[in-house]
Amino acid sequence: MIDPPVFGRHQPASHTIIHLSDPHFLADGVRHAGGSDSQGNLAHTLETVRRVHPHPSAIVITGDLTDFGEPDAYRRLRSMLEPVAADLGCPIVWVAGNHDERPALRAELLDAPATEEPVTGVWDLDGLRLIALDSSIPGWHHGDIDAAQRDWLAEQLRHPAPHGTLLAMHHPPLPAHVPLFDILELRHQDELADVIRGTDVRGILAGHLHYSSSGMFAGVPVSVASSTCYTMNLGRPAAEVNGMDAAQAFQLVHVRPDVITHTVVPVAEAPTGDYFSEEWTQAMAELSADERLGAFSRKPPRSKA
Question: Contact, 21 vs 62, CB < 8 A?
């Protein structure tokens, strides 16, 4: 199928990131107490991931990879993600969350020593730098980027990357809609802002909230991906919000020289209109640019009946 022509002012994206979050896997593939099927929901999500982009730059999963840090849960998660990443020809960036256990994560996902060392890393994605930070604190649910990590990050950011830098972390440096999350938020945000402000950081990818959200931090856009497991029902009063096994989503991150967009992709089956059929696309390809613009952009005349 021929790609539809592009008439806008923006060039095609140089990089596309698949941003997933909060799969909350359990050992033995069991369901959560509320009934949500973390393994089945992720399988459904990955079917959609395969459709939306054939060659992404990376798959980034921003934390709470498992619910209790069980080794079998990490192995199950890895067995589902790695074949997809291999088929798409891209790396997986595993980010630690407050429900994760660093030793098991490092051993089962990174083939690294099972230590309490923060799970961090730097990826050069054809000139786009992606830095994973570890905002988890062993034994606690709130987050922090401690002084050692902040110093390490500052050193990484001393020299800009050709396409700039994206940070990936679990706890977003944003206020939450749900009151409970106030006590579970990221600490030392001012100190982290001092490290980021004025650098080539172009975006922050995060999770933790189980709903999609966005905002600004230190002059940098922050984009929070919803959970692939269960989400928050924001259709209720803020103080009464609770989880539901519905509205799962992930995000497509498109990087262009002048802008980065974060598109929420719902994971749902529903009837879909066929606005860009193969026959239509072929017919458009055979027209000149001016003819295509007229055929597609101009409104049809209003009926006088």
Answer: yes
- Structural domain includes residue 292: no
Could you tell me the CATH number of the domain that includes residue 198? 3.60.21.10
For 132-165, what is each residue's pLDDT tens digit? 999 999 999 999 999 999 999 999 999 999 999 9
Residue 75 phi, psi dihedral angles, 5° rounding? -65, -40
Q: Is residue 193 part of a domain?
A: yes
- CA 287 to the chain's CA centroid: 38
Contacts of residues 25-29 at CB distance under 8 Å and 24 or more positions apart, as own/partner, are: 25/65, 25/66, 25/67, 25/73, 25/74, 25/76, 25/77, 26/66, 26/67, 26/68, 26/70, 26/73, 27/68, 27/70, 27/71, 27/72, 27/73, 27/76, 28/72, 29/76
SS3 264: strand
Q: Is residue 283 part of a domain?
A: no
Query: 219-242, pLDDT tens digit by residue?
Result: 999 999 999 999 999 999 999 999
Q: What is the three-class DSSP state of 195?
A: helix
Per-residue pLDDT tens digits for 71-125: 999 999 999 999 999 999 999 999 999 999 999 999 999 999 999 999 999 999 9
Q: Is residue 5 part of a domain?
A: no
Residue-number span of the structural domain to which 171 is assigned: 15-234+243-266
Q: What is the pTM of this model?
A: 0.91
